[in-house]
Amino acid sequence: MDAQDGKMKENSEGRKKSEVLFDAFGEGKKEKIEMIKKRARKNFTLGYNCAECVMEAVLAVVETGLPSEAKKVATGFGGGVGLFGDTCGAVTGAVLAVGAVHGRPGLPEGEGQESIKKAVDELYGKRGLYRLFNQIPNRLADKYGKTLCRELTAKWQESWLCRDHALFCRELITDAAEIAAELAFTKRDEAASRPFRRNVENLRD
How far apart, in Å, are the Cα atoms of 23 and each of 26, 28, 29, 87, 197? Predict the structure, then answer.
């Protein structure tokens, strides 16, 4: 099998896995979403960080083809990346979790400029994946006003993980898990067809 055949097989298997996933979970969607929310919320009380809470909950409920150990990729995103205070770990955990379901398994078929054009369209097009992932920070910003850890937690930086801070983060984690679950259980083309909201390129439909 040459490299091109391998890429075609990889993409085909990715599409088949997605079809099986949504056939299997077409019913009971609300129950599965609620299960993920509750699991992410409980994870925080067990000692998982914000990003791990969401990632672990989705991997535990949704068949992604990834092993449970894949949640370790979320560890460093806690506290806005190693406590640096950038994007909230619950946001990045949700992005990672949704990526485990809807992310690209490889680049599109083709060569040269044709292949590059297809790859760009997969991200920016009318059914582009950036539209899907763009929903996560925007929906959380609708409720919390911001998505940077240092801004969300500004009033607790002298009393880190005090009760009020922990309760706040637990709620944010629960909300992020709900958004991740909803997107995970929405067909990729449907979720990726929604309009862009706030974005750095100021793209509009």
Answer: 5, 11, 11, 34, 29
> In whole angstroms, what is the distance from residue 164 CA to residue 6 CA?
52
**Closest among 93, 101, 100 to 40, alpha carbons compared:** 93
pLDDT tens digits, residue range 69-125?
999 999 999 999 999 999 999 999 999 999 999 999 999 888 889 899 999 999 999
pLDDT tens per residue, range 15-52: 444 444 444 445 689 999 999 999 999 999 999 999 99
Q: Is 67 exposed, middle or buried (0-12, 13-18, 19+ CB in 10 A)?
A: exposed
Interior CA angle at 152 toward 147 and 158, to 5°?
150
Are 64 and 100 a contacting pair, CB within 8 Å? yes
In tens, the pLDDT along 182-202 reads 999 999 999 999 999 999 999
